[in-house]
Write a structure and sequence with these properties.
Layout lengths: L1 H29 L4 H18 L4 H10 L3 H17 L4 H12 L7 H17 L3 H15 L8 H16 L3 H13 L2 H4 L1 H17 L3 H14 L6 H17 L3 H12 L7 H20 L3 H10 L4 H4 L3 H17 L3 H18 L2 H17 L3 H66 L3 H65 L2 H21 L2 H6 L1 H15 L3 E6 L8 H21 L4 E9 L2 E8 L6 H4 L3 H12 L3 E7 L3 E9 L4
Parallel strand pairs: 1-2
Antiparallel strand pairs: 2-3, 3-5, 4-5
Length: 667
């Protein structure tokens, strides 16, 4: 005991001596009259101040402000915020610090401002405030994209983080877009850790869409690519995700081996490493418990105690401890306590609509009831687990279909960009034609050869553009046909299975399962309706448009006034679908962006045209700025397929009007 007191006193004395020494250094620095000299000296001792005398950094910031060196202020506060976030786990304090730095945003260089936004995004991400994190990272991206950085590694990290956030929120199209941007940067070719992180995000994308085999292949590629110098924390995260996929594939031995491999890499000296180790130990406890390897499960459970005090104020971490407690109580054969804990977790999961936890708790309760000899109750919970597992499998299959739709949308965007490049090339060809024609007036022989050559080139380019436009129309038509088929399969296949599941649950008196099945059925029906407007086939184009307007009027705060002339039979069926999609896109844009309280829609037949007019009284926009947006390009693309003339008139603060004339002869 005396030796311990001696060592503590010695350590305290060393710390006090270090603090006193730093204080003396600060005093010596303050005596320097030149700011640049002081700044250089501050930089030399900054890391030491973080570890020993963090409050002295405020004096440095005050000195930098007094000398109007706001870039030094921003970099100092950014480093301080990261210290609060990663070293002492105080994200709230870190956020206050970074917001104070951003208060000087008008006087900070673009590169430093980009770093500040990135740090703020990391803080919000750690706090699970995903929308705020998304805003901060996108602001950082805008700033980084203006910097002439050959590697653009920081920009790439923003792309990867944004991809992960959009993936968590279920926006797969945007997630894929940011992931493609990250992979297109030079850093992907020469930065090993950056490449591994990109591959890891790609694997997450497959895993969250139920495409587990593809996800596992990416995990194996990451592990095979890594060497002794690779980021061990990143590899530990890879093993953590790999273990989840092994469990879903019901490969229990592989899951345990992957977790053990991950634990050899995790580093508990920093906060992130502690979190990863904590999750790996929990998964190991659960895996051993499922295999009835009770001693191994309890050993892994006991190792989790190192993080328990830090998890008390974080609900998602505390929930993991509760699940581990339930498994440990089961292994200790304290079945009543284990059952109480598992039932409490099941109740909370039902409130949070956490399907995976609901399924796991039914399985655990089944095991506990079986151990207590309550075989009927055990069978009921196991059957519920099986029903949920089957439902989740069907949903994953539906997600896989939607993911393929997302990939199609991504390819469609690339095709639009390719079309624009073709138009640019065509314009360049025309300019070359005019230039060579001028020279041809001087050189008759060259003029003749040049004109023939350029004429043929131009004709080829025009023919190619026309062919691409025809292909675009056929691709959209094929897309509509496929959407219709997928919608029908969802309705007839997954929908009928969910109805049967709901009826069985009602028969068995399982209200929670019946409610979950009903909610899932509603989601499947909503997806089916979004994929293909069935009313278009049943009621016709006029009634379908009126039904769409009625639904929008009831489901939004916008008052829709409309006057619709009957147009049934005036357009071929495929053109009716394009007109319906055009109106759907236009009205969705109006609801999303106009901030109007009222809108008018008129559709009439005049001469040989169908004339559609939409007008709102909202905030308006600048057409020159937004004409290249995805929404506007989609409207113009649909109008071109209809052979119509689209005019969009808008002024900021004056609302927006849209006019489409479709020639009946063309249709």
């Amino acid at each position: 005991m005396r030796r311990l007191l001696f060592l503590f006193g010695l350590h305290l004395g060393i710390c006090c001596h270090a603090t006193q020494q730093l204080s003396e250094q600060l005093g010596a620095i303050n005596s320097e009259s030149d700011w640049e000299t002081r700044k250089s000296l501050y930089t030399d001792i900054f890391d030491s101040l973080l570890a020993a005398d963090i409050h002295s950094i405020n004096k440095i910031v005050v000195d930098a402000r007094a000398n109007k060196d706001f870039d030094f202020v921003s970099s100092s506060l950014s480093t301080l915020a990261e210290y609060y976030l990663y070293n002492i786990s105080k994200p709230d304090s870190a956020l206050l610090i970074i917001n104070a730095a951003l208060a000087d945003s008008g006087q900070i260089s673009t590169s430093n401002l980009a770093q500040l936004w990135q740090t703020q995004g990391n803080i919000y991400h750690a706090m699970r405030k995903l929308d705020s994190a998304k805003y901060a990272f996108e602001a950082s991206v805008d700033a980084f994209e203006t910097i002439n950085d050959t590697s653009r590694a920081n920009l790439g990290l923003n792309y990867l983080t944004l991809s992960g956030i959009y993936l968590d929120q279920g926006d797969y199209l945007t997630a894929v877009t940011y992931l493609d941007k990250a992979q297109s940067l030079p850093a992907y070719q020469y930065d090993r850790d950056y490449k591994l992180q990109t591959l890891n995000n790609r694997a997450n994308l497959y895993s969250m869409n139920g495409m587990l085999d593809q996800a596992v292949e990416f995990r194996k590629e990451i592990i095979a690519t890594a060497d002794n110098n690779a980021n061990k924390m990143l590899l530990a995260i890879t093993y953590l995700n790999y273990a989840s996929e092994a469990r879903k594939l019901q490969e229990d031995s592989l899951e345990i081996q992957v977790i053990l491999d991950g634990l050899t890499l995790a580093d508990t000296t920093d906060y992130t490493g502690k979190i990863i180790t904590f999750y790996l130990l929990y998964k190991l406890t659960e895996a051993y418990s499922r295999q009835d390897m009770t001693n191994a499960a309890l050993e892994a459970y006991q190792k989790m105690d190192f993080f328990r005090s830090q998890a008390l104020n974080v609900p998602r971490y505390q929930m993991i401890y509760d699940r581990a407690d339930a498994e440990a109580l089961y292994c200790l054969q304290q079945f009543d306590a284990a059952l109480t804990k598992a039932q409490s977790l099941l109740t909370n999961a039902l409130q949070d609509k956490d399907a995976e936890t609901i399924m796991d708790m039914h399985r655990l309760i089944s095991r506990i009831q079986a151990a207590q000899g309550n075989f009927e109750q055990a069978l009921n919970h196991y059957q519920t687990y099986n029903h949920l597992h089957d439902s989740l499998t069907r949903i994953n299959r539906s997600n896989a279909v939607l993911y393929m739709e997302t990939l199609y949308e991504s390819e469609r965007k690339k095709r639009i960009i390719s079309d624009q490049n073709n138009k640019i090339q065509l314009l360049a060809t025309s300019n070359a034609f005019n230039t060579k024609l001028l020279w041809g007036t001087i050189m008759a022989s060259i003029m003749l050869i040049g004109m023939i050559y350029l004429f043929r080139s131009r004709q080829y380019a025009l023919a190619k553009t026309k062919l691409q436009q025809t292909f675009s129309q056929k691709l959209l038509d094929a897309h509509e046909t496929e959407r219709k088929r997928i919608a029908r399969d969802l309705h007839d296949g997954v929908g009928q299975s969910l109805i049967l599941l709901k009826n069985n649950a009602n028969t068995q008196g399982d209200e929670s399962l019946a409610q979950l099945a009903g909610q899932t059925l509603d989601e499947v029906r909503s997806i089916s309706r979004a994929l293909h407007p069935a009313l278009l086939t049943k009621l016709g184009i006029s009634a379908s448009i009126e039904k769409m307007l009625t639904d929008l009027d009831e489901s939004t705060d916008i008052l829709f006034s409309y006057e619709l002339a009957p147009i049934d039979g005036l357009l071929p069926p495929d053109m009716e679908v394009h007109l319906y999609r055009f109106l759907q896109e236009a009205l969705n844009n109006l609801i999303k962006h106009s901030k109007t309280t009222a809108a008018d829609l008129e559709m009439k037949v005049e001469d040989h045209f169908i004339h559609v007019m939409i007008e709102d009284y909202g905030v308006g926009f600048d057409p020159d700025i937004t004409k290249h947006s995805l929404g506007m390009r989609t409207l113009y693309e649909r109008a071109a397929i209809l052979g119509g003339q689209l005019q969009v008139n808008s002024m900021i603060g004056k609302g927006t009007s849209l006019s489409l004339k479709i020639p009946l002869a063309h249709a």
